[in-house]
Amino acid sequence: MTIRTKICGITRPEDALAAADAGADAIGLVFYAKSKRAVNIAQAQAVAAALPPFVSVVALFVNETADTIRDILRQVPIDVIQFHGDEDDAFCRQFDRPYLKAVRVRGAEDIQTASARFPHARAILFDAYHPEEYGGTGLQFDWHLLREYRGKPWVLAGGLTPENVAAAVNTSGAAAVDVSGGVESSGGIKDHAKIRAFVAAASAGRAAE
Q1: Alpha helices for the chain (secondary structure H)
Q2: Could you count the other beta carbons within 10 Å of the beta carbon of residue 41?
Q3: Could you tell me if residue 59 is inside a domain?
Q4: Residue 188 lies in a domain
Q5: Catalytic residue (one of 15, 25, 127, 178)
Q6: How confident is the prediction along the chain (209 residues), in pLDDT tens digits per residue?
Q7: For the chain, what is the domain count?
Q8: 8 tagged catalytic
Q9: How far apart (Å, rounded) are the C-alpha atoms in residues 77 and 17?
Q10: How many Å apart are CA 149 and CA 105, to the nearest integer?
């Protein structure tokens, strides 16, 4: 089974191209001013313009206003929206795009209730819980908790690296993974060798099962 991969927090066209060349299925653009990986409209447009066909562009928002989201969607070719804040299903579904909803996992209940809480989500993204941050923390949660999940399609995130992604895939049963800091040389700057190693290791993990 092919493991789908997303390289998030892209800020430069050359990093987007490196992700595409490595075989990533999607790249993520962070529209959250407090993030060290945040992009403005011009940066996002440049990244999107550099991508080859069939690589999805995902826009990440955290508790953003609907008007701001619509303004960005008018200016940047976004395929999928990823909500990482406290948004509910009604808010997330209003933008005429498939959406992913990040759920910060503290325990099994957070996983088991996710599908019911976000019935219109294309997929759930399970990330590690942090009391003050909305992702990109490098923290992990117990991947074994996902083995019994039978809800919506889902994506594994949180503390993934080229060194641990194969184990994460095998332990959790993930069909898709999302990485940001684990393939960086510094905040918002991707390491192209790490991107290649991550994509290869993700696929090798499932193949080794």
Answers
A1: 13-22, 41-50, 66-75, 89-92, 108-112, 114-117, 165-172, 192-207
A2: 13
A3: yes
A4: no
A5: 127
A6: 789 999 999 999 999 999 999 999 999 999 999 999 999 999 999 999 999 999 999 999 999 999 999 999 999 999 999 999 999 999 999 999 999 999 999 889 999 999 999 999 999 999 986 655 555 566 788 999 999 898 999 999 999 999 999 999 999 999 999 999 999 999 899 999 999 999 999 988 655 54
A7: 1
A8: yes
A9: 16
A10: 13
Q: What Å distances lie between residue 115 and 57, 106, 149, 177, CA to CA?
A: 23, 16, 10, 18
Segments forming the whole domain that contains residue 158: 4-177
Q: What predicted TM-score, i.e. pTM, was given to this entire model? A: 0.94
Does residue 158 belong to any structural domain of this protein?
yes
**Rounded distance between C-alpha atoms, residue 164 and residue 40, angstroms:** 31
Query: Is 165 a member of any domain?
Result: yes
Cα–Cα distances in Å, from 38 out to 9, 32, 107, 122, 146? 7, 6, 29, 24, 29
Cβ neighbours of residue 188 under 8 Å, at least 6 residues apart? 9, 11, 36, 37, 38
Assign residue 101 the CATH number of its domain.
3.20.20.70
Catalytic residue among 8, 15, 92, 178: 8
